[in-house]
Amino acid sequence: MQKDVKELVLTIVQPLVSHPDDIQLSVEETDEFMEYNLRVNPEDIGRVIGKQGRVAKAIRTIVYSVRIEGSKKVRLNIVD
């Protein structure tokens, strides 16, 4: 299931950025969350976040709607 969420994030983010080869997505598991840490090229950070965070919010809405096994929630962090 973790692979599905990772693929979903990459599928959404790749068309938004100018440097798709620079996308890095790491996963950390905590007691409550599966934390996905997204890093993109510094030139692309604005495209991923969007005006007033609208793009980031939309990406998170889609990703958070995915149910994963167990009681953990998915969290997406955009790291700059």
Q: Could you please describe the fold and organization of this structure?
A:
With 80 residues, the protein is of the alpha+beta class. The chain has a single domain, classed as GMP Synthetase, Chain A, domain 3 (2-Layer Sandwich). Helix content is 35%, strand content 25%. The chain contains three helices and three strands; from the N terminus they run αββααβ. It has helices at 2-13, 45-49, 54-64, and strands at residues 24-29, 33-39, 73-79. The chain has a three-stranded mixed β-sheet with strand order 1-2-3. A hairpin with a 3-residue loop joins β1 (24-29) and β2 (33-39). The mean pLDDT is 92.
Mean pLDDT: 92
Structural class: alpha+beta
Rg, nearest Å? 12 Å
- Tell me, what is the CATH class? Alpha Beta
* Broad shape: globular
Largest sheet: 3 strands, mixed
Multimerization state: single chain
CATH architecture: 2-Layer Sandwich
| Number of spatially distinct domains | 1
**Total count of strands:** 3
Q: What's the helical proportion of residues? A: 25-40%
What is the fold-level CATH name, i.e. the topology? GMP Synthetase, Chain A, domain 3
Range of strand content? 25-35%
- Give the H and E element order: HEEHHE
CATH superfamily: K homology (KH) domain
Instruction: Figure out the total of helices.
Output: 3
